[in-house]
Design goal:
elongated; 17% strand; 6-stranded mixed beta sheet; 6-stranded parallel beta sheet; alpha/beta; 12 strands; 13 helices
Length: 332
């Protein structure tokens, strides 16, 4: 099956077929759908290698994440894949295990094979990010990291943390512990900013427990014991996985959640609603963020050569999902 046969079936020229089946091609949506329908009826599939020789495109998108064991990043990958597939691109995924060296290696390795990269929650320093222009000329979109000079998609984590503490305050909690994540990461700094903003209001006393690994073990280890020793009646965790670790440790210490300790997570991964008790958490729009990052990438790819376009930085709203891990505190 050839492009000419698709053109005859759709009643358009071969060049229109080519533009219709190429992401960013300049045709109307009506024409694009007619051509795609004709291609589907005839079983036509574009030859990526041949198209790449003509367009200079690979038909691939790269997505780099720090930890695929965390369901949050698995959801990001699925969102990127769904959107890229809809735009006719395949996706290459790389897990850097939260290692800056592996992250830079992944960028160098993927760049020649893809049209652009979605770099999720990068561990690289600001200086290292700026040096990426020496590594590749392929567009890089930051996801869950904001950096001058880069197009990015982030979630309003400051507002999310504020909402979490406002909820706990409304339930009567006045002494709240915060178990933070790796201090060097942008997301940890944003979460901390939200916590500090609420602390400065004087409504809630914040007990800063410190920084833990963003894993289940981060909650199981000494952090839970510090929370219990602090006299806090509630705790906000860096993410849902850490919150699960805290709840597990509280259970081992015979501390009932939420009757004796309220727990709030962040991210709203699918498991949050399946936990016992179901976890109150800050919802981060993972699928929306992934789609927005891919759209930004294709917008960048469609920029005419030499046109100076200011990188776009999108901030998506968060909201608190109240479930069974938080409850009102009984006061004498």
């Amino acid at each position: 099956m050839t492009i000419r046969e698709v053109a005859k079936e759709a009643g358009v020229s071969p060049s229109t077929v080519s533009r219709s089946l190429t992401p960013g091609g300049t045709v109307s949506e009506v024409t694009r759908e007619r051509v795609r329908a004709a291609a589907d009826r005839l079983g036509y599939r574009p030859n990526r290698a041949a198209r790449g020789l003509i367009t200079g495109r690979t038909g691939h998108v790269g997505v780099i994440v720090p930890d695929l064991l965390n369901p949050f990043f698995a959801d990001i990958c699925k969102g990127v894949q769904a959107r890229a597939r809809g735009l006719g691109h395949a996706v290459f995924v790389s897990d850097t295990e939260r290692d800056e060296g592996l992250e830079m290696d992944a960028i160098r390795t993927l760049a020649p094979e893809v049209d652009g990269i979605v770099l999720c929650a990068p561990q690289l320093s600001s200086e290292e990010l700026r040096s990426l222009s020496d590594v590749t000329d392929k567009p890089i979109i930051l996801l869950h990291r904001k950096e001058p000079g880069f197009a990015s998609v982030t979630a309003d984590l400051v507002e999310g943390m504020t909402d979490a503490l406002t909820h706990l305050h409304a339930l009567g909690h006045r002494r709240v512990a915060y178990v933070g994540g790796p201090r060097s990461t942008w997301t940890a700094q944003e979460r901390a900013a939200g916590i500090e903003a609420m602390a400065s209001s004087g409504k809630v006393e914040i007990i800063q427990v410190g920084s833990v690994a963003p894993h289940f073990d981060g909650g199981i280890t000494g952090a839970a014991d510090v929370v219990l020793a602090s006299g806090a009646t509630a705790v906000v965790a860096f993410n849902d996985i850490v919150a699960f670790g805290l709840i597990s440790r509280f259970s081992a210490r015979k501390v009932r959640v939420p009757d004796e300790m309220s727990v709030v997570g962040c991210d709203d991964i699918a498991l949050a609603g399946m936990a016992a008790p179901p976890l109150t958490t800050v919802h981060v729009p993972k699928a929306h963020a992934a789609r927005a990052a891919v759209d930004l990438l294709f917008r960048t790819l469609g920029t005419p050569a030499g046109e100076d376009v200011e990188p776009l930085q999108r901030v998506l709203p968060t909201h608190l999902v109240v479930r069974g891990s938080t409850a009102a505190i009984e006061r004498p």
